[in-house]
C-alpha cells in the first residue's frame, strides 16, 4: 500500500513541475513580446512604432489591413509626408497625408493640416471642435514603410472580440498543456 502512495506523490510532483514550467514559459513569451515592443519604441522614437490602417481613406496608397512602420525623427514634418496623428480625447490614431504646414516665426510652433488621399475634404471636420490645425504633439510618427494586409488579423479580432478571447484562451491552453 505504501508504494501506491509514493507513486501518487511522485506523479503529483512531476505534474506540478510541468505546470510550473509551462507558466514560466508563458511568462517568458509575454516578457519577450514586451521587450521587442519597447525596443521598437526606442529605435523608432515613436510611442507606437506600428499601426494598422483601419479605413480606406488613404487608398490606393495604403489599404485597410496594411501595417505601417512609424519613425519620429528630428526632421520637420513637411507637406506630402504621411503621418499618424492622435486627436486629444480620441483613442484611434489616424493615418493621413500632410497637405499644409505653417511655421510661426521666432517660435518652434508648427501647424499642420492633413487629409486622407481618398477623402474629398481636409481633416478639419475630424479635429476637435474649434481646432483648425494639428501641432507636433499630436503627431505619433511618420510612415516609413508598410506590410500589406498583415494587419487584417488585428482588424478581425477587434471586430469580433469573442474570436480574440477564444484565440488567446486556446494559445494559453496550448502552452500550459504541451508536453516536453
From TrEMBL:
The chain crosses the membrane at residues 19-40, 149-176. Keywords: Hydrolase, Membrane, Protease, Signal-anchor, Transmembrane, Transmembrane helix. GO terms for biological process: signal peptide processing. One of its GO terms (molecular function) is serine-type endopeptidase activity. Gene3D superfamilies: Umud Fragment, subunit A. GO terms for cellular component: signal peptidase complex. It is found in: Endoplasmic reticulum membrane. It comes from the Eukaryota. Catalytic component of the signal peptidase complex (SPC) which catalyzes the cleavage of N-terminal signal sequences from nascent proteins as they are translocated into the lumen of the endoplasmic reticulum. Specifically cleaves N-terminal signal peptides that contain a hydrophobic alpha-helix (h-region) shorter than 18-20 amino acids. Belongs to the peptidase S26B family. This is Signal peptidase complex catalytic subunit SEC11. It comes from Sphenostylis stenocarpa.
Amino acid at each position: 500500500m505504501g508504494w501506491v502512495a509514493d507513486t501518487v506523490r511522485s506523479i503529483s510532483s512531476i505534474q506540478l513541475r510541468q505546470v510550473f514550467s509551462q507558466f514560466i514559459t508563458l511568462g517568458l513569451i509575454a516578457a519577450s513580446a514586451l521587450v521587442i515592443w519597447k525596443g521598437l519604441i526606442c529605435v523608432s522614437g515613436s510611442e507606437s512604432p506600428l499601426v494598422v490602417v483601419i479605413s480606406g481613406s488613404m487608398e490606393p496608397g495604403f489599404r485597410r489591413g496594411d501595417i505601417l512602420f512609424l519613425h519620429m525623427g528630428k526632421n520637420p514634418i513637411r507637406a506630402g509626408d504621411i503621418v499618424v496623428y492622435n486627436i486629444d480625447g480620441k483613442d484611434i490614431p489616424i493615418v493621413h497625408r500632410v497637405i499644409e504646414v505653417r511655421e510661426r516665426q521666432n517660435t518652434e510652433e508648427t501647424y499642420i493640416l492633413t487629409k486622407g488621399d481618398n477623402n474629398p475634404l481636409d481633416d478639419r471636420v475630424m479635429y476637435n471642435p474649434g481646432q483648425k490645425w494639428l501641432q507636433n504633439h499630436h503627431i505619433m510618427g511618420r510612415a516609413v514603410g508598410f506590410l500589406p494586409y498583415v494587419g487584417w488579423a488585428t482588424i478581425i479580432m477587434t471586430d469580433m472580440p469573442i474570436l480574440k478571447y477564444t484565440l488567446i484562451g486556446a494559445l494559453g491552453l496550448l502552452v500550459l498543456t504541451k508536453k516536453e
